[in-house]
Amino acid sequence: MRTLRARKIEAVGLDVLDSPFTDIVGSVADRAMVDRAMRGITDVLHAATLHKPHVVSHSRQDFVDTNVSGTLNLLEAAVANQVRAFVYTSTTSTFGDALTPPRGAPAAWITEDVVPIPKNIYGVTKVAAEDLCQLFHRNQKLPCLVLRTSRFFPEGDDVPELREAWDDSNLKINELLYRRVDVEDVVSAHFCALEKAASLGFGRFIVSATSPFSRADTAALGVDAPPVVRRLVPEFESIYSARGWRMLPVFDRVYVNDRARQLLGWRPQYDFRRAITAIAAGHDWLSPLAREIGSKGYHRAP
């Protein structure tokens, strides 16, 4: 919404919480409200969701209501209003157990061809919503693209052990190598998807920072990652050493964004090398948009 308004593009923002960027306060689970909100809409960016941190605070039914029924409501309203493009913000968490090979095994090379194995209600409902998008493209000819975004939140990690063991920037910059993306690149991917939806019809795309690794690196990454990073990005070592930072000892997966770059024409800007170059120069490694948004937290109250 910030970017749309900055570009002078007319848009309607819908959210369960009021904000300077919310025009309609309500839930996508409310079919009547969705029908009213969708009148005159030409394109949909569907990012409404309960996500992983909400597993501990919301019921499984809440996840079904928002992530599945809410998506169905939007899709049906999109067809009724002859929407030109529907872009669904999904998640790499849909891959679930496919992301964690046994200890010592090669890192999982994650492309869109990997079959999801959801491990919680979040993953199950996101996969179901993706399938609804595919169904509406097949049966109602709705141009509908699914973006499986990797983690881009600025909040501390939702795993307490990681929050306590790592400097926050150190951990997040490490993640740019294999499982993180900057929110500004996420936004640009959505605009690319809007432009390509009509010609592509349907597709699933991984949206994550471009990794320096190749598939040939996966065996070493699963056993001893730092030498691989040192070979590909040798300048990282002195930059990390000056700050007392550490590289992760192993990587369990690598997200591959080739399809999004090739078919959507997406050009992500914020990767590991750019981040460490910024840190070395004394600059913030986050994008201007990420800094502007800041940390919102996972819940209405801590």
How would you portray this structure in words?
This protein is an alpha/beta fold and 302 residues long. The protein has a four-stranded parallel β-sheet with strand order 3-4-6-7, with helices on both faces. It has a two-stranded parallel ribbon with strand order 1-2. It has one domain: NAD(P)-binding Rossmann-like Domain (Rossmann fold, 3-Layer(aba) Sandwich), CATH 3.40.50. It contains 13 helices and eight strands. It is globular, with a radius of gyration of 19 Å. The two termini are 25 Å apart.
Task: Give the topology.
Elements: H1 2-6, E1 14-15, E2 24-25, H2 31-37, E3 43-46, H3 60-80, E4 85-91, E5 108-110, H4 121-140, E6 144-149, H5 160-165, H6 168-175, H7 183-200, E7 202-207, H8 218-221, H9 225-232, H10 236-243, E8 253-255, H11 258-263, H12 272-280, H13 288-293
Parallel strand pairs: 1-2, 3-4, 4-6, 5-8, 6-7
Helix pairs in contact: 3-4
Overall spatial form: globular
Helix count from the secondary structure assignment: 13
Radius of gyration: 19 Å
CATH T-level fold name = Rossmann fold
SSE topology string: HEEHEHEEHEHHHEHHHEHHH
